[in-house]
Amino acid sequence: MTSVLAYSGRRLLAAAFVVWAAFTVSFVILYALPSDPVQMMLARGGDASLDESAVQAVRHEYGFDRPVIVQYFARLGAAVTGDLGTSMQTGRSVLVSIGDALPQTLALAGLALAIAIVVALLVSWAATLAPFAVLRELALGLPPLGRAVPSFWLGLVLLQIFAFQLGWFPATGNTGWRSLVLPAVNLSVPVAVVLAQVMIQSFRSTWTAPFVEVLRAKGLRQFRIQVRHIMRHSLAPTLTVLGVVTGAMLAGSIVTETVFSRSGVGQLTQQAVTSQDLPVIQGVVVLSAVVFSVVNLAVDLVHPLIDPRVLSRPLGRRRPVAV
Amino acid sequence: MTSAHLKTSTEVLSVRGLAVDYQTRAGTTTALRGVDLHVHRGEVVALVGESGSGKSTLGRAVIGLLAANAAPAQGAVDFEGTALLGLSERKLSRIRGRRIGFVPQDPSVSLDPLKRVGEQVAETLRVHGVADRRQARDQAVQVLERAGVDRPGLRAGQYPHELSGGMCQRVLIGMALACEPTLVIADEPTSALDVTVQRVILDYLTEAVAQHEASLLLVTHDLAVAAERADRIVVMQGGLVVETGTSRQILTDPREPYTRRLLEAAPSLGRARARTRSVASGTAARGLVPAEPAVVLGTVGLSKTFGAGDHAVHAVTDVAIGVRRGQTRAVVGGSGSGKTTLGRLILRLVEPTSGAILVDGDDISGVEGAELRRLRRRIQLVYQNPFSSLSPFLDVERMIEEPLRAFGIGSRRERAQRVAEALSRVALPQQVLRRRAAELSGGQQQRVAIARALIVDPEVIVLDEPTSALDVSVQEQVLQLLTSLQDDSGLSYLFISHDLAVVRQVAHDVSVMHLGRIVEEGPTDQIFDSPAHPYTRELLDSLPRWEP
Predict the structure, then answer these.
(1) pLDDT at B277 over 70
(2) What ipTM was predicted for this assembly?
(3) For residue B281, what pLDDT band results from cuts at 50, 70 and 90?
(4) Mutate which of B65, B89, B98, B112 to disrupt the A interface (most A C-beta within 10 Å)?
(5) Which residues lie across from B215 on neighbouring strands?
(6) How far from the centroid of its chain's Cα atoms is residue B361's Cα?
(7) Judging by beta carbons within 10 Å of its beta carbon (0-12, 13-18, 19+), is residue B525 exposed, middle or buried?
């Protein structure tokens, strides 16, 4: 029992550290940028010749006139209490902006993930157990193909065929579940590729494990071995990779939401970067770190339930090697 | 048991003209070239041969468990009136586990590590419709109980990694017998187990099979085990059956030269044999020379603890041993006894927690840097598995030469000269120089490993189970090579082994290790003839016995 608590405690600490590190690194990078956000913000108003006192006033309002280290701790303190500042572009609270955009992106990412898992399962199953070598090779060739296709290009192709020619789904917008389908398919491809590759690798190596021979000698048929034994062995590496892929999905949502003109965190990020809206960018970075940490924490905590050996392994070797 | 097959002559398994090919990158390899085999009801038949003889392929071909690269088997396999060859997977799966049980070689990798032990036993019962979900759980516990698993109710809820190897093998044997099969195929069922549990597991296996009135096909490389357990022995070589007969006939009156060679090489039958060592030894006849040679390598109070606090493992505790110049000191013990850690400590591959390691009287336990490197010339290592201790990318010449390069010894030509010499010392032809490890046989690989150790003229060689990965006849040759090298150049060996029969052949002195401590030591004869410590006696008892 102590080992379970110790294990969970360590994982929790690691997750907190990642969030803090993301906040700090993003602070350092963003505030070390050579351009002056206040100048940019005021210039956007069309006011070319700026009054120095007005600039100072804005600087003071956002706290940019204070020493960097003071700014850092002030922002860190505020962030801990949930205050990520206000957008320099819209004047709205960063937390509220993200909160408004998040459900759209979560729906998109959730559906994309579900599609990716189903596709990856089908492909990896076929690549391992399809009755003919030709079919297996064919399935084996799909992940590299999927990886080779650029996401924005695939998005445009999907739009061209299913929105413009067939008219099955709307090309843009956020309304209704139909608007979700094409972007989700688009976003799911890179995720499905990674998952399928891990599953294929894991299925294949597990099928050659000695205990599988004993299962066959016990009189188990192929299907039962795959479902009851092999899949469970593949769950651990797949979940580990899933933790990593989540980060990639956030990044992918920027491209997807731009191509399909959807509102969401991706679009918010894209706009914030274009206009150097520092508080929003930092808010998105922290959000990504939080999502990433939570997902990985969940993966780490679920891991001992899948593989009981995790808790009895020596420190530093808790994750299976995912290829 | 011996007369069981005389009472009923019902044939359970009949194999005729079985042939199996494997497709490999190098082309087609024939594993079986037309083999006949018959097993009668209640009979124990041992399938004996060296690696590559096809014995395992035969055992697996019967239940259709050949590797994926095997071509469909030719011939006929008849089991209780059913032709098994060409049967669909669906029909075969009804026979596997239900009517033919299978016991694998290495229990530690043969159970699904992610499933509770009880579930895995219950699964066998359920797929064959012997029990429904609820019954299966209770019956699984009963199976474990009959298999001699302690606290079966608790064990059923545990995972394989929480059980010892011997315990896992009991589970697997119990599982193989759970559906009351008429035939059990056991593929080297104890060769991966610790010496002290091998006997117990074999006892259990043969008793359980007899109790179920099943027949047993025992695949083994060990003639002594076969002789001790089987009614009949089938000797295989190169995919063919060389000789078949009752155990008595095979052992007392072998007809084929190959069987005779196997018998001569089998070290566990060597109790009455003249010891290679004392016959070959011209110099330093042991015990007869009044002045014992000086100790070249020794340890004093050597200890190693891994981890700390509650999790501390005392791998080696307060060990004192000595290797005399030109002699062999054996360290024997079961797995987990700390003998391998001791070897690694002496080689300075792990740091001792306390104690001293003496080479020619100098403490080397604190030596570091350049001095430690110089020391490595004086103590060399030959490891258990020759294949994994040789680089797959280098050719033989490069591998043997490498220590010379590392120490910057000689010019290119001198090094080539020394490599050639080393090769002839280990009796390898010069043609192997350009080959890579994978192109050599197991015995040749181990000779390369020995040549690599010899090339820097060490005083002591630490041999960690140097022959346990080799076939018996090859094992014999490597042991002879080691003793003749010792006689010729006065090498000293620290010989780490679990195999008492081998130790008896080569060692002058023996230290018995148990739970990290030396529990007994003395001259080889004394240890074998009048063991004082109970653990030594346990080790000696675990040797297969066979009296004609």
Answers:
(1) no
(2) 0.74
(3) very low
(4) B112
(5) B183
(6) 36
(7) middle
* Residue showing tokens 């089938």: B234
Contacts of B128 in chain A (CB under 8 A): 219
Half-sphere exposure of A289 (CA within 13 A, CB side): 19
Residue that has been written with the tokens 């002056």 in this structure: A36
pLDDT value of residue B315? 86
CB-based contacts of A102, cutoff 8 Å, min separation 6: A264, A265, A287
Closest CA to B316 of B297, B295, B344, B296: B344
From A235, which residue of chain B is nearest by alpha-carbon distance?
A: B114
Domain B11-266, CATH class in plain words: alpha beta
Set of chain B residues whose Cβ sits within 8 Å of the Cβ of A228: 123
Q: Does B159 lie at the interface with A, CB-CB under 8 angstroms?
A: yes
Both tokens of residue A299?
């993966």
Smallest Cβ–Cβ distance between B89 and the set A221, A232, A312 belongs to: A221
Distance CA B283, CA B392 (A): 38
Mean of per-residue pLDDT scores for chain B? 85
Which residue from A minimizes the CA distance to B116? A308
Which of B252, B192, B180 lies closest to B222, judged by CA?
Answer: B192
**Structure tokens of B189?**
């069922």
- Domain residue limits, chain B: 11-266, 291-385+461-541
Predicted confidence at residue A317, as pLDDT, reads 40
**Helix ranges (DSSP H) in B96-149:** 117-127, 133-146
- The Cα–Cα gap between B547 and B251 comes to 10
H-helix or E-strand containing B32? strand B27-40
Q: Does B310 touch chain A (CB under 8 A)?
A: no
Distance CA A88, CA A67 (A): 20
CATH number for the segment(s) B291-385+461-541:
3.40.50.300
pLDDT at A323: 29
Distance CA B171, CA B180 (A): 15
- On whether the CB atoms of residues B315 and B521 are closer than 8 A, the answer is no
Please indicate whether the domains covering B11-266 and B291-385+461-541 agree at the CATH topology level. yes
Residue type, B300: V
The stretch B411-415 carries a mean pLDDT of: 90
Nearest to B216 by CA among B100, B105, B87, B52: B100
Q: Categorize the per-residue pLDDT at B147 as very low, low, confident or very high, splitting at 50, 70 and 90.
A: confident
pLDDT of residue B7: 43
Q: B90: Cβ–Cβ under 8 A, 6 or more apart, which residues?
A: A221
Span of A297-301, B21-25, B523-527 with lowest mean pLDDT: B21-25
C-alpha to C-alpha distance for B232 and B210, rounded to whole angstroms: 15
Q: Are strands B322-324 and B100-103 parallel, antiparallel or unpaired?
A: unpaired
- Residue A53 CB coordination number (10 Å): 7
Distance CA A160, CA A156 (A): 6
Query: How many angstroms separate the CA atoms of B420 and B422, rounded?
Result: 5
Low-confidence ranges of chain A (pLDDT < 70): 1-2, 33-50, 311-323
> Which domains, ranges and CATH numbers included, belong to chain A?
94-312 (1.10.3720.10)
| B473 burial via Cβ count (<10 Å: 0-12, 13-18, 19+) | middle
Across the interface, whether the CB atoms of A214 and B114 are under 8 A apart is answered no
Closest to A192 (Cα-Cα) out of A139, A232, A228, A156: A139
Specify whether the CB–CB gap between B130 and A227 falls below 8 A.
Answer: no
Residue A161: other Cβ atoms inside 10 A:
12
Q: Which helix (H) or strand (E) holds B113?
A: none
More confident residue, B84 or A55: B84
Q: So what's the pLDDT on residue B13?
A: 93
As a whole-number percent, the residues of chain B with pLDDT over 70 amount to 92
Structure tokens at A138: 């064919």
Task: Compute the average pLDDT of residues B23-27.
Answer: 75
Tell me the average pLDDT across B264-277.
51
